[in-house]
């Protein structure tokens, strides 16, 4: 079979074409959302990973995936992708952030005096929560309607407004990504101590699930929706 991916393919392009590649990238801690514009070879060299080995793994995963039919977000209309982002990823965050907050607070309060990193996790999570809630509102109230308006009325004025709004969103994505990466580092890849209580473990598990959803969310916007809009 023809090789689908090359060393010069960006990690964002790879995941856009083959969404399951995100599983492999997560295994190697490769940022495919905010860092999606980097060539695969540069990322792998930086991480001291063998380019040929990773390419072979990607190719093998891709060939196996051909046996299954998966949604290709590159092929759907903007409005359908936007609806999916809102109903799936925005809804997840709007439900999960307030539910997770009391657990993060409790773990920091109970265990923070002897494990100071938990105080930092609490502070970072609170910062992330505030930023994301404001970010989601901006997307739903301002930017997504602007994109839909541009589709109907593709004037230069609308285009410039949309470009500025998208650039602002992408900067916010990068900052949110940095916060969750910092939390991962502080928590030793969300690994609780062997004697951690149930709430402690719950917090780490749900923070990792939050990271997983957030990275997929950002990828859909940064590497599929926004580039498609900006090149029209």
UniProtKB/TrEMBL annotation:
- The scientific name of the source species is Anoxybacillus flavithermus AK1
Would the keyword RNA-binding be found if you checked this record's keyword annotation? no
Recorded GO MF terms: metal ion binding
Query: Which Pfam families does this UniProt record tie to the protein?
Result: Hemerythrin, ScdA_N
Instruction: Pull one GO CC term from this UniProt entry.
Output: cytoplasm
Start and end of every Hemerythrin-like domain?
83-229
> Which InterPro entries does this UniProt record tie to the protein?
Hemerythrin-like, RIC_family
Spell out the protein name for this chain: Regulator of cell morphogenesis and NO signaling, scdA family (2 C-terminal HHE domains)
> Where this protein primarily resides, as one coarse class?
cytoplasm
The question of whether RNA-binding is a record keyword is answered with no
Localization terms from the record: Cytoplasm
Family matches, as PANTHER family: IRON-SULFUR CLUSTER REPAIR PROTEIN YTFE
């Amino acid at each position: 079979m023809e090789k689908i991916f090359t060393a010069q393919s960006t990690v964002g392009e790879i995941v856009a074409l083959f969404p399951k590649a995100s599983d492999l990238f997560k295994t190697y801690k490769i940022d495919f959302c905010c860092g999606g514009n980097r060539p695969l070879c540069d990322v792998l060299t930086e991480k001291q990973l063998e380019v040929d080995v990773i390419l072979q793994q990607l190719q093998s995963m891709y060939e196996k995936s051909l046996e299954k039919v998966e949604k290709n977000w590159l092929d759907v209309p903007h409005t359908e992708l936007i609806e999916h982002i809102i109903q799936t990823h925005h809804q997840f965050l709007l439900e999960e952030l307030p539910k997770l907050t009391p657990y993060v607070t409790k773990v920091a309060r109970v265990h923070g005096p002897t494990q100071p990193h938990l105080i930092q996790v609490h502070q970072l999570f609170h910062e992330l929560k505030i930023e994301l809630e404001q970010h989601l509102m901006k997307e739903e109230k301002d930017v997504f309607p602007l994109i839909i308006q541009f589709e109907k009325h593709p004037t230069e004025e609308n285009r410039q407004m949309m470009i500025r709004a998208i650039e602002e969103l992408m900067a916010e994505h990068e900052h949110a990504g940095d916060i969750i990466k910092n939390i991962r580092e502080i928590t030793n890849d969300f690994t609780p101590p062997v004697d951690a209580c149930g709430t402690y473990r719950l917090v780490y598990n749900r923070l990792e699930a939050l990271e997983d959803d957030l990275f997929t969310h950002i990828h859909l916007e940064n590497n599929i929706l926004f580039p498609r809009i900006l090149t029209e």
